[in-house]
Amino acid sequence: MIDVVARIIGIFIKKSVSINDLSYLLGKAEQTHGVGRSINIFKKNVLNIPTIALVLFCTAAFIIFGLSITVILNAVSKTTTSASANSNNKIQTPKISALIDDDKVQTPKTNIPTSHDEIRTYQVNTHISNREYICTGGGEVMYGYQLPPCPDLKENDKTLLGIDTNDNGVRDDVEVWIYHHYDKYIPCVEVEVNVTAPDGKIVRGFKDVCEDTVKPYHQIVREITMQYAKAYQIVIQKPEKAKKTIKYMDNALLCELYFLTDAKYLNEPTFRDKNNNIYKYKELEDIQLNTVQRARAFRKYIFYLKGGRYELEDGLKKRRNACDFDVDKLLEK
């Protein structure tokens, strides 16, 4: 655009004027006379009143012409699209998922998954395996622990916190899922090894060494996951108190970090699978936030954390003490 204006100026003052010419004049005037007088010098050397009027007129005409072409092209494009759609009656635009606000809930009319992370508006994924999880079994004893029975699906999903018959802070369907899901695995340990760097130097590194056979998860793994599940239940109750309740999520994370890597420095076992995990965060979140009400409450919790500064406790003992279960008892100390 600046180049076009420069050429128009050149036509009316009968000189060859380019962007570089304009920049040079303005820059030179500013360098020698300051910003205030640079414009006056530019006017005196390049422009006069008739020229200014003609330049403004031509510039306006050029802009109007460009806008007219754009409007015409858009109209032609819309007409073509409409004609194409009408020619094929099989083409339908699905209404994707359920759009949720504070006042009403619309029933989803398709299983196409989508998500939206606004606070007052939330679209629920309806085609994710864990959110379609239906509790089966329950009521049995696993590893010496009595599981609650699987709750009625509709009754369980009517309320924010669901059904918790044994009153341990974890929803019954989530508790059954944790014990069934964290039953057996292939354990791995992190060991130190010597690694040859690109420059040829030998440096210390780490790698995971996994066993060949499947073994039962240690009870500590299930306890860590249960601690996370309790934290979810706490933070979604009053999302506006997120800056206070975040400590429950932090404690679960600290406990996990301790048994992921730190415990070995105190000669205690670490627990990790072949994917370098203790528990699978995304899977648990899908189970916990399996309804619109629960998902929206958690998004509000995340929203109310904005603007704060959060730091995890440092130190091996502090991380170990963040566990809400009796570590010594489970390690048989």
Short synopsis of the structure:
The chain is mainly alpha-helical. The protein has two domains: 2-86, no CATH class; 149-185 and 213-330, no CATH class.
Q: What would the principal axes of the Cα set say about the shape? A: extended
Total of DSSP H or I helical runs spanning 4+ residues: 11
Beta strands, count: 9
Q: Uncertain runs with pLDDT below 50, 5 residues or more?
A: 11-47, 81-129
Can you give the helix content as a percent range?
40-55%
Overall average residue pLDDT: 74
Word description of this protein:
The protein has eleven helices and nine strands. It is mainly α and about 325 residues long. The protein has two domains: about 1-85, no CATH class; about 150-185 and about 215-330, no CATH class. Strand 4 and strand 5 (about 145) form a beta hairpin. The protein is extended and about 95 Å long. The termini are far apart.
Task: List the SSEs and their pairings.
Layout: H1 2-13, H2 19-46, H3 49-86, E1 99-100, E2 116-117, E3 122-123, E4 141-142, E5 145-146, H4 153-156, H5 172-181, E6 184-185, E7 188-196, E8 202-210, E9 215-216, H6 219-237, H7 242-260, H8 281-288, H9 292-304, H10 316-321, H11 327-330
Helix pairs in contact: 1-3, 5-6, 6-7, 6-9
What would the keywords be for this entry?
333 residues, mainly alpha, 2 domains, 3-stranded antiparallel beta sheet, two-stranded antiparallel sheet, 11 helices, 9 strands, 48% helix
